UniProtKB/TrEMBL annotation:
Gene3D superfamilies: YqgF/RNase H-like domain (3.30.420.140). The lineage of its organism: Bacteria, Deltaproteobacteria, Bradymonadales, Lujinxingiaceae, Lujinxingia. Could be a nuclease involved in processing of the 5'-end of pre-16S rRNA. InterPro entries: RNaseH-like_sf (IPR012337), YqgF (IPR005227), YqgF/RNaseH-like_dom (IPR006641), YqgF/RNaseH-like_dom_sf (IPR037027). The gene is ruvX. This is Putative pre-16S rRNA nuclease. Its EC number is 3.1.-.-.
Length: 149
């Protein structure tokens, strides 16, 4: 059986995390990590990698609408650098994949509004749902590539 995957949406104050089902077909929300310090938030992501026995971490890569790296890339790089250092300290390895996250937060917001989720609950869930969109997009791409051969 393939290892599970985690999707990660790195924000300024929160990091949304989603996990694949064991078969790698569906993304499910897991947790919103409050970023009180980058190293602490990165350590929590390491704990989730261990808990879910993840083999791949798909991180949303914030490109602008022209496909160029925006200013938010520095924040994601810093967080992922701290994550990779924490993984080394734990003696663990995981594949990290960058995934274009353009419009994932917008899509997450729309899906929560469509589901009639209250404004307060949307604020709490938006990062996890964005992480689900990131991870689901990656898994769908893998499935399509496998079907094409």
């Amino acid at each position: 059986m393939a290892k599970r995957m985690l999707g990660v949406d790195v924000g300024t104050r929160r990091v949304g995390v989603a996990a694949s089902d064991p078969l790698g077909t569906m993304a499910m929300p897991v947790e919103t990590i409050e970023v009180k310090g980058v190293s602490g938030a990165a350590q929590r992501l390491v704990e989730l990698v261990v808990q879910y026995e993840a083999g791949v971490v798909v991180v949303g890569w914030p490109l602008d609408m022209r496909g160029r790296e925006g200013v938010a890339v520095d924040r994601v790089r810093k967080f992922m650098g701290a994550f990779e250092k924490a993984m080394v300290r734990e003696g663990r390895e995981v594949e990290v994949v960058r995934w274009d996250e353009r419009l994932t937060t917008t899509a997450a917001e729309r899906s929560l509004i469509k589901a009639d989720v209250s404004r307060q609950r949307r604020k709490e869930a938006i990062d996890q749902v964005a992480a689900c969109h990131i991870l689901q997009g990656y898994m769908d791409r893998l499935r399509i590539e496998a079907e094409r051969g």
